[in-house]
Amino acid sequence: MYEGVVQDLIDELGRLPGIGPKSAQRIAFHLLATDPVDIGRLQDVLGKVKEGVRFCDVCGNVSEEEQCRICRDLRRDPALICVVEEPKDVLAVERTREFRGRYHVLGGALDPLSGIGPDQLRIKDLLSRIGAEEVTEVIIATDPNTEGEATATYLVRMLRDFPGLTVTRLASGLPMGGDLEFADELTLGRALSGRRAL
Amino acid sequence: MSLYRDTGVVLRLHKLGEADRIVTMLSRRHGKVRAVAKGVRRTTSRFGARLEPFNHVDTQFYTGRTLDVITQVETIDAFALPIVGDYQRYTSAVAITETADRLTAEEGEPALKLYLLVVGALRALADGQRDSSLVLDAFFLRAMAFAGWEPAITECARCGEPGPHHAFNVQAGGSLCGRCRTPGSVHPAPEVLVLLAALLHGDWPVAEGSLAGARRDASGLVAAHLQWHLERQLRSLPFVERRAREAPITGALGSDAMSGDTEVTGAAQGTRGSGVTEGVPGGPGA
Ligand SMILES: [Zn+2]
Ligand SMILES: [Zn+2]
């Protein structure tokens, strides 16, 4: 244990995702040795991040205005919505340059163990959006893990009854460059059920 | 470095560092094990999705200084895939794994019976043949029996007088006879007690012949009994879907209108006959 504010800094850093006690210590002592001007810049950004950043009224993505850049962009196809868990997933899909529709950010995945059920996510907003806008296809792009799959299952059930709406799920399959025999059963099972005609 | 190998069910995961996870498993011979799976979150991980919750796996560990480390995993039963394909089954499976985690406070203490109960319940959910709400309640009752909290269903919890009795009191440990009954007891209909006994003893024809009202009340009593004994509430329980409640029922003699603290009589006889095959229309697997 260090004294006072140094230990406080280590504790705060240690609460960040992906940072263990050793890394927290390393970052703390790095910051202590850093030029005050650099620290000032970091302080500045940290101060602004909570007051300056808000969430898009339409899609829930991080935004600096009422609506995010993507929702304001008239060239984006309003008939197509890609549903993701987090804002960082919007960036991941954007980087592909394959998608010209809009997004809906749920704010996480259904995870009863963490106290997250349908009411804790932006699912109602999605449903009212589909009711109000001219949406014809919803692409579910939740994470390919247990919580993400369960969330997709739930969404499919909720979206099934919208007339004229196509609901699709991101394809998941075998990683390129590997041997079939090393694939695990979940991955192989999903690849089989999602196979396509050639 | 010492190696050991065991089969186990993945109960839950915690992120560790950039790409690792701490995997909590309930194993056949070593009870609860918490071990590190290195690099498991990378898409190139050789573990793949084998260490996702609900999967039943054969695992090799080596004993680490603080946490053991997983070196190899093979799938015995890939329960996760069918379970996440149905939201009701998923929420039941989460409640099962959370309960198993909570009932095994000590790591490394063998809990073979609980392990078998968890594997059996997850297998039933993955198969999708049985109503998931019944599977969950049967698991809860048997897990409580494992923990030594089995509710008294047919005999009096206080004096052992053979029943069935009218009163049921969670704090007192279950059914209470006319002499032992205390204020605050509820009065479940006789078929609720029949269902509880069937679930505890694995009498599936009787359990599956029960009506929606009895199922709902039995679920309420089981949940109340479990929560009374666990120090903290189960986090997942409020999120469990009990779709059987919505199933249309035929010939329910008013049992649908009852709640835990209302005395309802006369509804019992219809459910006990072997000819009653209500089933669960639209249930999982349909
Ligand atoms: Zn937006
Ligand atoms: Zn008594």
Automatic annotation (TrEMBL), chain A:
Tell me the SMART domains matching this sequence: HhH1 (SM00278), TOPRIM (SM00493)
Q: Which PROSITE patterns does the record cross-reference, listed alphabetically? A: RECR, TOPRIM
Domain Toprim positions: 79-175
Q: Where are the zinc fingers (C4-type)?
A: 56-71
**CDD domains per the UniProt record, alphabetical:** TOPRIM_recR
Which HAMAP family does the entry link to? Answer: RecR (MF_00017)
According to its UniProt entry, the function of this protein is described as: May play a role in DNA repair. It seems to be involved in an RecBC-independent recombinational process of DNA repair. It may act with RecF and RecO.
**Which protein family is it in?**
Belongs to the RecR family.
What NCBIfam families does its record include?
recR
* Protein's name in the database: Recombination protein RecR
Q: Which organism is it from?
A: Prauserella cavernicola
UniProtKB/TrEMBL annotation, chain B:
Q: Name one GO cellular component term.
A: bacterial nucleoid
Annotated region Disordered: where? 250-286
Keyword line: DNA damage, DNA recombination, DNA repair
Q: Which GO terms describe its biological process?
A: DNA recombination; double-strand break repair
Task: List the residue ranges forming a coiled coil, or say none.
Answer: none
Q: Where is the DNA replication/recombination mediator RecO N-terminal domain?
A: 1-79
> Which SUPFAM superfamilies has this protein been placed in?
ArfGap/RecO-like zinc finger, Nucleic acid-binding proteins
Q: Which InterPro entries match?
A: ARFGAP/RecO, DNA_rep/recomb_RecO_N, NA-bd_OB-fold, RecO, RecO_C
Q: Which domain of life is it from?
A: Bacteria
Provide the function of this protein. Answer: Involved in DNA repair and RecF pathway recombination.
What NCBIfam families is this protein classified in?
reco
Protein name per Swiss-Prot or TrEMBL: DNA repair protein RecO
Tell me the gene name.
recO
